[in-house]
Every structure is written in structure tokens, then in C-alpha cells.
Write a structure and sequence with these properties.
Layout lengths: L3 H8 L4 E6 L5 E6 L2 E2 L4 E6 L3 H8 L2 E8 L2 E17 L1 H15 L11 E14 L2
Antiparallel strand pairs: 1-2, 1-5, 3-4, 4-7, 5-6, 6-7
Length: 129
Amino acid sequence: MLDPKIRDFAQAKNYGTISVHLPDGSIATHVMWVHADDEHVLINTEVHRAKYKAIAANPKVTVVVWDNANPDAYAEVRGTVTGDVRGPAALDSINELSQKYAGTQYAGEIQSERVILQITPDRQRSQGF
């Protein structure tokens, strides 16, 4: 279960990063729009992207979300991608995220299938909120 205060923090208009393991053993970190439900941190991406392919090979990830007004306040979730959601729900999600962060429908070109990654926490902590 995701800590309710971390869930609320991720549901607010705060940016995050996701760190993934690349095939060569190095770590890649991407700034992302984030969301959450009661059980998971949620990341929306496309299946052609390197981060998705890396996660398919190694589902262990770390997500850090920081307070846009106070970057010293943050939450860290280390976890495992345990599921995904595709199809219309993933398209609706990217539009909801775009409304949350940009105030408009998603304007980016969708090159492949959208997917919501469901990250189940193994370890979670927060500071400053």
C-alpha cells in the first residue's frame, strides 16, 4: 500500500523522476509527470521508449517526487513495476496528466502505444511535508 501522504503528494502538481536500470548496468533517470492511486505510483509512457524497454528487462525502479514550491520536500518510492494499463485508459491518463501539469490536452505526438506503469512500493519515505 502506498503511504497516503505520498499518494496525495504524487497526485498534486509536483514533478518526479523515475530511475531505471539500463541493459549495460548503468542507471537512467527521467523527469516525469506522476500520479498515484491507493496502491501504486503511476507513470505514463510509451512502449517504444528506452525506459519502457529497460523496465521490461528489470522492473525495479525508484521514483522521487519533489514539491515544486519547496524542492527540499520530497518523497522517494523504491519499488517494482507490477502491472500496466493500456488502451483508452492510458490515453485518458496522459490527457489528465497534461491538464494537471500544462492546463491543456496532451499535444505530444504519440508514436506507439501509451501505457501506465503501476509501481508497487518496496520502500517509501518522505521528508519536509
